[in-house]
Amino acid sequence: MSLNESSLAMQRIAEFVDENSFMEIGSQVTARNTDFNLSALKSASDGVITGYGLVDSNLVFIYSQDAGVLNGTIGEMHAKKIANIYDMAMKMGAPVVGFIDCGGVRLQESIDALDGFGLIYAKQVEASGVIPQMSVVFGNCGGGLSVVPALSDFAFIETEKGRMFVNSPDAICGNRVEKCDSAAADFQSEHNGCIDFAGSEEEIFDRIRTLINILPQNNEGDVYTSDCEDDLNRACESMDTMAADPRYLLAELSDSHIFVETKASFAKNMVTGFIQLNGMTIGAVANCAKTYDENGDEAEDFGKRLTPNGCRKAAEFVSFCDAFDIPVLSVTNTTGFATTMCAEKNLAKDMAKLTAAFANADVPKVNLITEEAYGSAYVVMNSKSVGADLVYAWNGAKVGMMDSEMAAKIMYPQADATELKEKRNEYEALCANASAAASRGYVDFMLEPADTRKYLVAAFELLYSKCISPIDKKHTTK
């Protein structure tokens, strides 16, 4: 058995791919640098195993850093091996999955190693929007290497030994690792906006396999990734009780109740992920008013408010879907924006990013209004005015400038309770309901919640052949 075959890096690959499907590339590559007696050290594969294999019969290119060789540090040849895998993946139109377990930049190679960092970054940017990229942090991922999972489309971290950081916890002023382990999986999952899931190695591999099966292999792939065995006209009972937490709603809508959530622990007031309708993969973006625990009890209440992190999370997700021609469903249930000093610092900029993402996306776009859709928050959530192809609303949904009671108080500040009630009812009838919006063409169809699935299936079937000519420009600045 070779050194590579016995290494943890190779064991991870063998566990991940279909049995006996992995073919290694560049197994004889070693460090080229001889400074500081580096040539005397054993550097099998220069600390990274690269190659390709099958995952549920899908071609995937893989690199796996070997912490047992030079501590998994990145040097010149190490980086070139990873870059070569990216070149091959782009030629073949297949995803790249990277297993990160690295001691950082190789000090003996100095500027050559730094150039290697830049080479990997450049290949990731070149591949962005061409093939899906996934990274898993199994060990250390610190300093400049933390850019790698951040540049990936999907990133995962192993809960026990995975550590991701730009600055180590003890290097942060006023902090120690005992006080706040900012490199730990839970901290990174909740705060950095890069991590899609934290769990065991087995759980992470299952998540990646699901993504590989549900996503197009490349930007020219088809979104029909599976056959549908579910009833296309299946009634979704009690949908109206699921509006507060769209995770349940989306799972109920999807073929065989499959919902693959992304970045679940970050910005929980905005839900992003993938569903399937008649075998077609759909990217879903949904406002989340509340979350519930395993007993069905309310755990968190977000007050139907958009936040900066939520807007940024949704914007990045919509951009990914647009790059790979994945249709987008938005589920709108919002009354406004977060009213905190912290949110105010970034809200306008991140609202702009979300607006630009929806407006720029030329994929099929459908907006479903469930309970309430008020003000600018409603507009930026894929409304008709920013480019939704079809807008549906549940019967009884409220759509307008603001809540009718608040509007009445503003317009009639001197009115007594009786008059305010009268004016509130009048405003709601004229200006604050989905029927009024439909009469002006802003809502295309009103439907019963239980019928949602069959109408969405029909909508995306209709829009499958959507084709528009883009305006002649290089790209937007948002």
Automatic annotation (TrEMBL):
PANTHER family the record matches: PROPIONYL-COA CARBOXYLASE BETA CHAIN, PROPIONYL-COA CARBOXYLASE BETA CHAIN, MITOCHONDRIAL
InterPro entries reported for this sequence: AccD/PCCB, AcCoA_carboxyl_beta, ClpP/crotonase-like_dom_sf, COA_CT_C, COA_CT_N
Source organism of this protein record: Agathobacter ruminis
Keyword vocabulary terms for this entry: Transferase
Keyword Nucleus tagged: no
Protein biosynthesis keyword on record: no
Protein name: Carboxyl transferase
Residue stretches making up the CoA carboxyltransferase N-terminal domain: 1-172
Any Pfam family the entry gives: Carboxyl_trans
PROSITE patterns in the cross-refs: COA_CT_CTER (PS50989), COA_CT_NTER (PS50980)
Record-annotated CoA carboxyltransferase C-terminal domain positions: 231-473
GO cellular component, one term: acetyl-CoA carboxylase complex
Molecular function via GO: propionyl-CoA carboxylase activity; transferase activity
